[in-house]
Give the backbone structure.
Amino acid sequence: MEQANRNVFIGATDDYEAAKVVLFGAGADATTSYRPGTRFGPAAVRAESYGIETYSPYQDRDLEDFPFYDSGDLEFPFGSPVRQLEAIEARAGEILDDGKIPFMLGGEHLVTLGAVRAAFKRFPDLRIIHFDAHADLREEYLGETLSHATVMRRCYDLLGDGRIFQFGIRSGTRDEFAFMKAGHVITEPFTCRNVEKLNCCGVGKEAELLGGCDVESQPLNSLTPIYLTIDLDVLDPADFPGTGTQEAGGLHYDELRCAVTDIITRFHVVALDNVELNPSLDLSGRSTALACKFLRECLLAMSGS
Amino acid sequence: MEQANRNVFIGATDDYEAAKVVLFGAGADATTSYRPGTRFGPAAVRAESYGIETYSPYQDRDLEDFPFYDSGDLEFPFGSPVRQLEAIEARAGEILDDGKIPFMLGGEHLVTLGAVRAAFKRFPDLRIIHFDAHADLREEYLGETLSHATVMRRCYDLLGDGRIFQFGIRSGTRDEFAFMKAGHVITEPFTCRNVEKLNCCGVGKEAELLGGCDVESQPLNSLTPIYLTIDLDVLDPADFPGTGTQEAGGLHYDELRCAVTDIITRFHVVALDNVELNPSLDLSGRSTALACKFLRECLLAMSGS
Amino acid sequence: MEQANRNVFIGATDDYEAAKVVLFGAGADATTSYRPGTRFGPAAVRAESYGIETYSPYQDRDLEDFPFYDSGDLEFPFGSPVRQLEAIEARAGEILDDGKIPFMLGGEHLVTLGAVRAAFKRFPDLRIIHFDAHADLREEYLGETLSHATVMRRCYDLLGDGRIFQFGIRSGTRDEFAFMKAGHVITEPFTCRNVEKLNCCGVGKEAELLGGCDVESQPLNSLTPIYLTIDLDVLDPADFPGTGTQEAGGLHYDELRCAVTDIITRFHVVALDNVELNPSLDLSGRSTALACKFLRECLLAMSGS
Amino acid sequence: MEQANRNVFIGATDDYEAAKVVLFGAGADATTSYRPGTRFGPAAVRAESYGIETYSPYQDRDLEDFPFYDSGDLEFPFGSPVRQLEAIEARAGEILDDGKIPFMLGGEHLVTLGAVRAAFKRFPDLRIIHFDAHADLREEYLGETLSHATVMRRCYDLLGDGRIFQFGIRSGTRDEFAFMKAGHVITEPFTCRNVEKLNCCGVGKEAELLGGCDVESQPLNSLTPIYLTIDLDVLDPADFPGTGTQEAGGLHYDELRCAVTDIITRFHVVALDNVELNPSLDLSGRSTALACKFLRECLLAMSGS
Amino acid sequence: MEQANRNVFIGATDDYEAAKVVLFGAGADATTSYRPGTRFGPAAVRAESYGIETYSPYQDRDLEDFPFYDSGDLEFPFGSPVRQLEAIEARAGEILDDGKIPFMLGGEHLVTLGAVRAAFKRFPDLRIIHFDAHADLREEYLGETLSHATVMRRCYDLLGDGRIFQFGIRSGTRDEFAFMKAGHVITEPFTCRNVEKLNCCGVGKEAELLGGCDVESQPLNSLTPIYLTIDLDVLDPADFPGTGTQEAGGLHYDELRCAVTDIITRFHVVALDNVELNPSLDLSGRSTALACKFLRECLLAMSGS
Amino acid sequence: MEQANRNVFIGATDDYEAAKVVLFGAGADATTSYRPGTRFGPAAVRAESYGIETYSPYQDRDLEDFPFYDSGDLEFPFGSPVRQLEAIEARAGEILDDGKIPFMLGGEHLVTLGAVRAAFKRFPDLRIIHFDAHADLREEYLGETLSHATVMRRCYDLLGDGRIFQFGIRSGTRDEFAFMKAGHVITEPFTCRNVEKLNCCGVGKEAELLGGCDVESQPLNSLTPIYLTIDLDVLDPADFPGTGTQEAGGLHYDELRCAVTDIITRFHVVALDNVELNPSLDLSGRSTALACKFLRECLLAMSGS
């Protein structure tokens, strides 16, 4: 008799030991202030994955050659962000302690805090590269300090000045932009003045701060661990309508794909996430399809890093 | 120059003092385990109300003759049920202390606990009449004691045995049904055996327990205060698809309307709510339309009680 | 080379002369006060018709045995109700003058006035049988006398007291219900008190007024011409969500089908319409499917009348 | 490290040997003539199942006490009905040969033919009980003999006169109804004349033909093997809009649930199916929710048969 | 007791006197020939506004520093364009007479004619800058002279040759393009030949005609009053699907935002509008979100002009 | 009495003899592996066409000046690809034998094989220009050799090496890309390395292979017959969500329109198609609108070729 259907991302191995990267889902959205539903993101991406190829023509690589493990979704109560973050920190920490790279699928952006805590505990020199439409730098939001709108500020509380690099930001309060301009996080010159779009060469200035690697031939500084967090609403809503707080004027898919695979290839990413897919907001299904292919590209880029 | 648009339920008075009933919205849905979005319920009902008549041919009454006040929505952080319940209890308590009847619009069913606390503090002899597809009697749910799936159990913790009367229940765990059958709450004989549908005469047995009033001529026992909570998913999903956890085989609109207006007319309802409308799940809009007309019927029935 | 696709209702003849009934579309919705789109009704019904059988097991008749003609849709400017009504009156009049029965597909309910004018001019003794959720008896609506909400009042202005028979009404202003209760139109006892649902036997009282025919064997009074107008929102929104102003608690399909085929069979219907399908409000498509099959049943009933 | 997510119907056992019933999905829809998409039915039902309780208050039974196995979905090429039917026959045959009951989830109705072939080969005395809105008795459809519209005719070719019992039929061609009336299949008196709705007592006449068991105390005739096929479009579209060819005037959920659990309890069902859920046609999700709970009820009824 | 919810655009002042700009809604769509629903535009934008920040990082300005007033929506009968235009002209005129700038939210594009009449009566030297996918220059449409498809021709009748400047036009009849090419309105060279996209520098030629201001340092010619009308379907449907007549190949959000804020800053805009948002056509909600943020940018640009 | 509605593409002539191009629909989708529904494409495009102008400002041409014929849709059984391809080959062959150009509207991409067979039989020197997101070069798919995923491989089997020119490909298996790189089809350098977007000048290299025409002044080589097949999923899903297998990072409308009208103008296109519109996947309707306008542009370009 045949086995029942498997429910992991396409191409995942059954051999945990062999895997370099370990996926897990963290479908929490308790603090979402507008149109919740990102909790369905990880399941939607897994289901969709059976409709895509394991091969990427962009990178000329195939998931079948790259062992990664899919450890399934965390189960936790809705309505309890503190306990959700504890569960996330525990799972990410376990993966890190096994010498592997945790790759978390959100859920709302707050989940990043749990994984960042795990990574920071093990890599005190951690930097964060952050793609997002929103600054997420509020001190508090509606009286709460733990929220999708405060998550990068909480990360800042851990890491300190000059260690968070933001791309694609085009929405925030006056206070958040003042905080950026004061240099606590590095967003200049991407958004404050020109709100220019990112391109593949755009990571140059950050690269300098990280130890320099904007010259193609320069070796990656392996002493600088990176947490890479990608809020998919950094994309233009035309490309990615399936997210709760859409901001017109975002990156296009090729821009994001190119920038992120470039960053993964050059830098020492020790943990990463993709968050804020809300499949129910896009009846055409293209947001889930995009998230699925983007995840494949991230996994394949990790295989060569 | 004209005033800006008003945003209250149709027919609401500007004179708080004159009002017998006070509406307020509590659009919380942090613990919703499946398809959140009831937070948009109160706003949807208010917006829809401008498309309906203030007159009910069923009751031959008009909202224009009945002063009620709409005090707007509570604002509270998402992701913090404890604080949400505190805010609800405060608002409902304030209305009760002013000698008025609080009428809360959810939001998920957990919000009922806040209003029940306020009512119970002022009416220690409180009973609850509960319309719902789900028993909501779990001791805990996914490790949490505060949840839409535990709300009636928490109410039971306050009120004790034999004070909660449930109608329309057709879903629950084995443990929840065992709890009912043990007599802690009164659901027999509506669901445990026959899952018979409610009809207008169906409140007879409960009426006896409440002091007896199934004979038309018998005066309402004014010493028995009632909290009336209506989870709109008690309705059949054909009539009301706009709710997160749809259970086939429910009541039809006329059954619910008739039963509820009958209960309001006969009993001493001191506080009430309508919860679990999730407008985004019904693109046809008929769930919001129904909720809006049902609210009108409840308000008009209160005017004669 | 094959012909291009035809675009008429399934089973329509090409022989105008042979037809007893002539369909035409009047997709006007200029005065719709909430969620317009009935203009797409006729096209949706025609397209859908190719997915249904021409045979009705309810009546054991087949459209292939009954010659009717589909004369296509009227084209008229949006935003000009006066000219739309003129075009409708002209088309309906032309069909009547050819000794045939006009069967109009709306469009909003206001279109009925045009066809009633044409019929009244030729049958001064005309009565109207009216199925609807709404009384449509306002003297004016938002300052306009021509509106979907006033259409039956305008018909009343033509026909006078006691000639309009309403079924299924469950929404209106206090003034409209007062107008009914004063006996200007015949709605008692269907809605004013009990809002009872119609059943097949329910036309008895009206039948008496029309000359009596509630006894099965009694011949149809051929001297009493009837205009039969069916606003499909008389149906329950669970059965028929595809309409702009949904009223919970309506008729079910079998009730309406049975009542209408019974009326057509017994009485002398000289013109009729089906109005207020708005296909875009029902993404499941079942409203259009129902409207399509209901139209088939009406056509087949006409064949035996 | 935790296991990856499982993807079977809730409550399924891992122990194939212990199982009495074996679920499998056959998501084929190649011959669907209008709005395909039933191929997504099995996956949707499995995913939804994690939102329901394993306990049924209707039957007071729990899936946790009843070992069934979920063997996953068949994979086959789209566009090749012949090969799809071969794959289905093979899977169903294998399950039957293991002494278990195959329970197939469609897919379009044509899949039933594969499973009926497997059952008929092993039970030459097989009868079929068939719930459907459509007769499915065409000799051919658009030139093809294998189609969702011909499936019961192909089953008739195998079984012969008087062995197929149809319930709920309300749509078909004149020829199909003539075929019924000629007695080749047993639909009288359910549809041909009155199109009456089925009720729990309605299986009496069929029961007689099957050996008699309409008296409660009479033992089930264990010599008469039954294939039970349920096209979910037998339900009213108000209850179940998520199907490709909706027919107004159908059964309500409680009617179907009651009739089917009654049949399963009384008769010797050797194989069964639930077909024609198309989740994409019901954005509210209630059709999938209903199909999921109906499947639970069928499984629980099997446990006691 | 708290106040009921307010229903104005976020950041609006309560002090009419202090306001420089006055918003009002004109949700008319009676002449819409295809997919009406823009009547819901103003309400959707107001509701959405509570989810955005009052601060714009593009302009580094905050609505809290800029007093504008929201005077609510006009109420008028549907189906009567003449009276709708009178009501619009009256409201816009009243605002102009108070020395303020009327900012109208449509509604279909025909509403622009009412506001242009008011502005032209007070500024006989008026020019119109017009962003749109469609020329809207028909002499009549389906026999009507007042229509969304004729609105700019009616404006031309008032203003005369060479006073209307069109951007983004990519759809029209041969006659409309001939009218442009004859120089009655100024669209050359943007659309007639190359259908090139607009960029921020693109207003140069128009600037010359208006008195010259394509040199950054040149002061705005304050003697040339401008009516600025923006049909949001000038945007690409990928960015803005929520409009009734979508034309592929349009402007992207950043292009429009940049061009319009540039125009507002340089020229003497005396009245303006944003029209043709139809929220029901975009279930993802991003069109309403975009319209809301674009309105914020327009308001903030007015504050500095 | 007026004629019934016509149902052909806007501007089509009634005079078959006069037509240079003959449209026909082939709404087959039996082998679609994910989200079928392209069968509704041709009907949706025809219905939509009545909302667009016959004039193109891009080409300054009008369909009214160019006689083309619309011969309607093929009717064939679903679930039988072999017979569908036979019907398509017959229709396309008949049109070619009449000295006209067949223009097929899909349907899934497999339909192209039928028309290519007809063209190849009459033009043995045939080349194919192929726009698509997917290579469609699999040897087999799920065990079937006839499938939307194998269609270009089957065309290759007919035509042989170096005769298929692919644009826009960004998805496929490792084997398919190896097949391209081996030179069997010409996709270098568009996708294999850089996945660069196509621009109007991009056909240069192919032009050389076809006989050279990348220099503007060089006359078209009339000896090289071209079959032009355009899978609309070559477009970016932001522009065209209405297709079953969306691939982010595609062409924008203006890029495709420009490239295709350029190719038609320069080369000797003897047959062509537009395939893979699935209208039900795009509730905003913009995909159908785009497909409709793109078809107009193709027809107008043919008029000048």
Remarks:
- The longest strand of chain C covers residues 268-275.
- Chain C touches chain F at residues 1-8, 12, 16, 22, 43, 46-47, 69-73, 94-95, 98, 283 (CB under 8 Å).
- The helical segments of chain C are 41-49, 81-97, 111-122, 151-159, 174-181, 204-209, 253-266, 286-304.
